[in-house]
Every structure is written in structure tokens, then in C-alpha cells.
Task: inverse folding
């Protein structure tokens, strides 16, 4: 078995992407010419680089535990470090120590089983015994295949998906440089797809951009879909798949994009350190905000003309149309800020970071209202519960520590820790009534939780790592997009 430098580059690129290092992945992808390689990304499983390194370490462990004559040394090896595995002297020392202890055991009358025929098998079993099996969810909670519609068509990872707010149209965006609109209306037996090809102008003709579609958002009445791409352009599409407008001003990839509630402006954030408000009608740039010192990762509207943005520069700026400086700057995170969200009333702003904290901010004060520390790894995203007079306001956080946490923001405490996932959690979404929370992880599972009790209500295992989960407007379907190019729709009706 051999591996080419192109394959190594692709594995590193995918590792950076999966770890949330979006701008690093982009830079590495450009410099290593990833787009020109002929590697099919859909065939590469999630966390492939880590898996290969782990298997290499396991092989070295097994190799150390076998004598030259094929017999096994009957001692469980402590987990081998990466440094040990690549330094020959360390390997020799480990093997000598194992042999010395095995000899000492024999001399003290302890029987050492040595069977050359099954020596390799016993070592493999030993290795497997040191790795816990994936947790199986309660079969009574599993969503049956008959209630899951798997949509195939994308040729690469599907990073994002979003339901139309008025009809059962599901939009998805992928690394294959397309977005797609899937019709899942009641009278559709097999959902048809509209393919929205993201092209750039070269030599007087349109050619595929070969860049990831990174973000998408429907306007409030569901008549238009906006998409953002690594090619640096935002685009507006009609529900019949027609390209309405192309918005070009960013110098580099767009990482996030949002419509305002009124539907007259679109807001975007880019690797070029700027955020832009676009006039949706004319497609023109209304104002560009060059206040961040590093790539802008996320944006969210507070109202129709005021928004917040966050960046790898650790800062959060609140900006307003026609103002030439931020009207507020929040500082306190010690690492890049991955996501920001205003609560439904627009009074509180939540942020989450690679510093493993999430913070709540108010325009009335400089320092954070709450500094919530409980996650043990980076927090990838956050979501507020919808307005509901019968329940208190909650915030959900998804982390690379494989957990989801539900927070009571008024009291600043974690009320539920949801622990069934086995891999990083990339997405969470509240149902429209706030009673349920969907979560999607790279363990290929979509879990549905009760927000009141924190108990697992439904579970579905897909065919690829889950990047995004979203609810339709009625709250009876959950969409999920995956790393293997699939999009899945779960029907939760009884």
C-alpha cells in the first residue's frame, strides 16, 4: 500500500476543514492545488487522517508486541505516543522493556501463552479491546428507514442545508460547487432536485467555479435563496433555480451570509476581514465594514439595519448601516470566535469560541453578562430557543467534545448535558415550538432531544458525518446534510 503526496495533501485539507479551520483549509487548498487533484471526496470517510494515524500507531504497537519468531509478548502495551512511534530508538526501548518483563514473568512462574499461529490475531484482539465500541441507541428510539428519505445527487460533502420558511423546499450546499433545492411537498413521491451551479466568467463563458458553497439562507417569505461560496461571490436564486443576481465585492471566500427580516438587505462575512451589506434588489454593495483584523467567520442581524460580526481576531463588532465605526465592540474571548447569535428579542448576543467558552453580551455593558464554561473542547456553534411564552429562554451549544449543552440564560447555568454523540457535534437546531432539539455529529447520528427533560426522544444513523441539521416550519421534518454527499429528511409525524 502506498500514498501519494496529493493524497496526503487532501487528507490534511479535509482534516483542517472538519476541524473548523476554514481559512487555514482554504489557504492550504489553494497552495496545494486541491481543486486540480482527481480525488473523489465522497469516497474519503470523515476523520480519515486521524484514522490512518491511529491505525499506524496500532500497527507499531502490534509490531512491538511480537517477537522475531512470530510469538506474542503477553503484556498489554500502554498507548503508544506519536513521537514514540516515529523515533526508532524509542521503539527499540519499548520492545526491549516488553521482552524483559515477559522474561521476568516466566522466571517467576507466570505462564506466558505463546502461539505463533494466532499471535497476530491475539494482538489485534488486544488492540480492539482497548477501544470502546460505539454506543448503540435504544432501538425503540430509532427512526425507521421508512421514515427517512435519503436524497442523493451531490458529488461531494454537503456542508449546509436550510428549509424554505413557507413550503417544504429544502436547500443544500456542497463542496461540488452547487446548491440544490429539493421539493419534499406532500404530493411528491420522489423528490426532484434543482441544481444551482455556481459558475464564474472565464474567457467570455461561464465555467464551474470548483469551489465549496459555504453558506445559504432563505428570505423571510421563501421567494429567494441566497448562497455564499469559496469563490468569493454571493448569489441570489429564485425557487425555480434561476440565478437572479451575483454579488461580487469580497476578495476571497465568503464564510457566512444572512438576510435581514425585511428582506431588502443581505449581510455577508469573508476571509478578506470585511463584512458587507448588499441591496438585495439591485445587487449592489450598500456598505463594506473593514473593522476586523482577521477573517470574519459569522454575522447575525440584530434588526433590519444593525448586525454583529465575529472573527478569528477574537473580537465581536456591532455595526449599523451608514455608521463608519462599530457602535459597540465586545472583547473577552481568548481564541477565535466561531459563531454569534442574537436572541429572539435582539437584546442579548451569544458567542462561542475555540477558547471552549460561550459568552452572553448586552449592549448596556462592556463586559459579558455571563461567561459560561463547561465544555472541554472548542464550541462550534450555538442556537437560541424560539420565542415561547410558556418556556424560559434557552441556549444550545455544540462542541467538539462530543456533547451538546442546554443553558438557562437568565440564571447562567447549564441545565442539561446531552452525551450520546461519539464525535464532534457540528450542528444543533430547536424545533419551531422549542420543545425539541436536533443535533448532528460526525458520528453519523442525528439525535432528537426533549428540551424540558434532556432525554433522547428519537435517533437516526446516516451514512456520513453530519454537518448541519434543520427543522421545517411545521416542526414535523428534520433535514440533515452529510460528509458523504447525502442529504437526509426525517419524517417525525406519528
Result:
Amino acid at each position: 500500500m502506498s500514498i501519494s503526496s496529493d493524497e496526503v495533501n487532501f487528507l490534511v485539507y479535509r482534516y483542517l476543514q472538519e476541524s473548523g479551520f476554514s481559512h487555514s483549509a482554504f489557504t492550504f487548498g489553494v497552495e496545494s492545488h486541491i481543486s486540480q487533484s482527481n480525488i473523489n471526496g465522497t469516497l474519503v470517510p470523515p476523520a480519515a487522517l486521524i484514522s490512518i494515524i491511529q491505525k499506524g500507531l496500532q500497527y507499531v504497537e502490534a509490531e512491538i508486541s511480537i517477537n522475531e519468531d512470530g510469538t506474542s509478548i503477553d503484556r498489554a502495551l500502554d498507548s503508544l505516543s506519536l513521537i514514540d512511534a516515529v523515533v526508532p530508538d524509542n521503539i527499540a526501548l519499548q520492545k526491549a522493556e516488553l521482552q524483559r518483563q515477559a522474561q521476568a514473568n516466566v522466571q517467576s512462574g507466570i505462564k506466558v501463552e505463546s502461539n505463533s499461529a494466532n499471535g497476530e490475531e491475539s494482538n489485534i484482539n488486544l488492540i480492539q479491546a482497548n477501544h470502546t465500541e460505539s454506543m448503540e441507541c435504544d432501538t425503540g428510539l430509532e427512526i425507521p428507514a421508512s421514515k427517512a428519505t435519503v436524497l442523493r445527487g451531490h458529488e461531494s460533502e454537503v456542508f449546509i442545508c436550510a428549509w424554505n420558511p413557507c413550503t417544504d423546499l429544502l436547500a443544500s450546499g456542497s463542496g461540488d460547487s452547487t446548491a440544490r433545492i429539493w421539493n419534499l411537498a406532500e404530493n411528491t413521491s420522489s423528490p426532484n432536485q434543482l441544481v444551482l451551479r455556481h459558475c464564474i466568467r472565464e474567457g467570455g463563458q461561464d465555467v464551474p467555479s470548483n469551489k465549496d458553497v459555504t453558506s445559504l439562507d432563505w428570505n423571510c417569505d421563501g421567494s429567494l435563496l441566497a448562497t455564499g461560496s469559496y469563490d468569493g461571490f454571493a448569489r441570489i436564486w429564485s425557487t425555480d433555480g434561476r440565478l437572479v443576481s451575483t454579488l461580487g465585492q469580497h476578495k476571497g471566500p465568503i464564510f457566512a451570509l444572512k438576510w435581514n427580516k425585511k428582506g431588502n438587505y443581505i449581510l455577508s462575512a469573508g476571509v478578506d476581514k470585511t463584512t458587507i451589506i448588499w441591496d438585495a434588489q439591485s445587487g449592489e454593495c450598500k456598505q463594506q465594514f473593514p473593522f476586523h483584523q482577521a477573517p470574519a467567520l459569522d454575522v447575525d442581524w440584530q434588526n433590519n439595519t444593525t448586525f454583529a460580526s465575529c472573527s478569528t481576531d477574537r473580537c465581536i463588532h456591532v455595526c449599523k448601516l451608514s455608521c463608519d465605526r462599530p457602535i459597540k465592540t465586545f472583547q473577552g474571548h481568548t481564541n477565535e470566535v466561531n459563531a454569534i447569535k442574537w436572541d429572539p428579542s435582539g437584546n442579548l448576543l451569544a458567542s462561542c469560541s475555540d477558547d471552549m467558552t460561550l459568552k452572553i453580551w448586552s449592549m448596556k455593558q462592556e463586559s459579558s453578562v455571563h461567561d459560561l464554561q463547561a465544555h472541554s473542547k472548542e464550541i462550534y456553534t450555538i442556537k437560541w430557543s424560539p420565542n415561547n411564552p410558556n418556556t424560559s429562554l434557552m441556549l444550545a451549544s455544540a462542541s467538539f467534545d462530543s456533547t451538546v449543552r442546554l443553558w438557562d440564560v437568565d440564571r447562567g447555568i447549564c441545565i442539561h448535558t446531552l452525551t450520546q454523540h461519539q464525535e464532534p457535534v457540528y450542528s444543533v437546531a430547536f424545533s419551531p415550538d422549542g420543545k425539541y432539539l436536533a443535533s448532528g455529529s460526525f458520528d453519523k447520528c442525528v439525535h432528537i432531544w426533549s428540551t424540558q427533560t434532556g432525554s433522547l426522544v428519537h435517533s437516526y444513523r446516516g451514512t456520513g458525518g453530519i454537518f448541519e441539521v434543520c427543522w421545517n416550519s411545521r416542526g414535523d421534518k428534520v433535514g440533515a446534510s452529510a460528509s458523504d454527499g447525502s442529504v437526509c429528511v426525517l419524517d417525525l409525524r406519528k
